[in-house]
Each structure stands twice: as structure tokens, then as C-alpha cells.
Design goal:
Helix content: over 70%
Radius of gyration: 15 Å
Number of domains: 1
Order of helices and strands: HHHHHH
Structural class: mainly alpha
Number of strands: 0
Shape: globular
CATH topology: Ferritin
Distance between the termini: 24 Å
Number of helices: 6
Length: 150
């Protein structure tokens, strides 16, 4: 279970880097609030996971250069995709993580609130991209998550 929590945390560091890169570099500025909200979901989740990592005495690195670089590399690869293709790509990319984290939450016997947080964060991101895929704003799912966990 500790490995799963640490793995999810590293994913948050990746996500912060990835979405921050989009917020800073995506040319269509109308989507800027969405990128900021996605980044905020990752930051809120990372901050809360750090509390659990401290309690469980699991070492972690907030500024993990490998995860930061990986996030930037992936963001650069997708940055120039047309919006609809980008949304489809991100929806497909998030889907297996959302499923995996839901399974983790169901399997958890200890630290259930931590695994629920991990699952809720990924579900909010997945629902966001599904809404965007359907031509609807997805930012509301992110805002709901942020309000729930702050």
C-alpha cells in the first residue's frame, strides 16, 4: 500500500509539471483557466498526499527532477495537437489510471481516505476530459474536487 501511495504522489509531481507546461505554453489562451484548474487539482492532491507520506515515514521528493522532466517532455509532445485531438488523447491517457485508482480505493484495507483522494482526483480529471470531449466545459468537475479537498 505504501508503494501505491508513493507512486500516486510521483504522478502528482508529473501532473503538476505537465499541466503547468500547458498553462504556460498552450497557444489558445481561452483554455488557460482549464490548465490552471488541472494544475491545482494536482497540487491539492500532492499537498494532501505529503501529509500521509510524512505519517507513514515514506521519503519523497517534491521537486523530483525525473518526474518534472517527464511531465515537460510529454507536454511538449502533445502541445501542438489540435484541440479535439488533444482532448481525445488526454481522455484516453487518463482512462486507465482512473480505473486503476478506483480499484486501489476498493481494495484498500488501510489508509482508505488516502486512496479515496487518489481515486477522486483522477476521476475528476477523467470526467473533465470526457465533458470536453462531448463539447461541454469540464472545469466544473475540477472545481468540485478542489472545493471538496481544500
Amino acid at each position: 500500500m505504501k508503494k501505491r501511495i508513493h507512486s500516486a504522489y510521483k504522478g502528482e509531481i508529473y501532473g503538476i509539471s505537465f499541466f503547468t507546461y500547458f498553462a504556460d505554453n498552450y497557444t489558445d489562451k481561452t483554455s488557460h483557466p482549464l490548465w490552471l484548474a488541472l494544475t491545482q487539482v494536482e497540487i491539492v492532491t500532492a499537498d494532501l498526499l505529503e501529509i500521509s507520506l510524512h505519517k507513514l515515514q515514506i521519503p519523497f521528493e517534491r521537486h523530483d527532477p525525473l518526474m518534472i522532466d517527464k511531465g515537460i517532455i510529454d507536454a511538449k509532445r502533445w502541445l501542438t495537437l489540435p484541440w479535439n485531438e488533444l482532448v481525445d488523447t488526454l481522455t484516453d491517457w487518463v482512462k486507465p489510471y482512473e480505473k486503476k485508482y478506483r480499484e486501489w480505493a476498493l481494495e484498500a484495507e488501510d489508509h482508505t481516505e488516502v486512496f479515496q483522494l487518489i481515486a477522486d482526483h483522477e476521476t475528476a480529471i477523467y470526467q473533465c476530459w470526457k465533458a470536453e470531449q462531448n463539447g461541454e466545459p469540464g472545469i466544473g468537475y475540477l472545481s468540485t474536487f478542489i472545493q471538496k479537498y481544500t
